[in-house]
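Sequence in, structure out. Go.
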Amino acid sequence: MPAMLLVSVLGRKGPASVKVANVALVTVSGLEVVGGTLEDMGNGEFLVTVTKVPAGEFVVLLNGTDVVSSTVFQRQSTTQMSVSKVTIKAVVDRSMEPGKTFTLPFTVMTDTTGGSYKISARNDRDFKMNVPGSIAVTTGGNATGELTITVPANTPSGTDVTLTIEAVAPGATADSNYAVLRLSVVTKVTSDM
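Output:
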């Protein structure tokens, strides 16, 4: 399955002092290398698209040129990563209204061990929320929960709210994933005709 990642690169004299040539995902064993296509987003940020993500743990490997010294460099991420076996999905099909409570259903799915998955959520406007502390997911299955957001009555119409919902699997591995949603507050207009 294709994936995208945003890579930020900073040279000795700022982002303009490096040229990135290649970015790849490399398994820890070194047996699999998945090269990516680069799109320069400016200011030292590159959008990398890979055709697939390696199974198991991998690192990000980057090659390029230091423009200041005209030397070739190679960098590797210090953290080993892997694809989460936890998926969390939520669909926003309507806007929120000032002074009203908004209910948002979400689904947690797993390709691995089931159990009690810890759920947390936050929003960038500090609106009051009720979030289930956990949700029971069957092995290889899914479960649905819902959270509520109370929008203060004095919230201006047109306000955007960024909501992050996270699900953490039980056990020592603590595999997790999150969904980021953008919600809008819109005052409902009624007509007396």
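Check: DSSP finds no helices and 14 strands in the chain. The chain has two domains: 3-76, 86-184.
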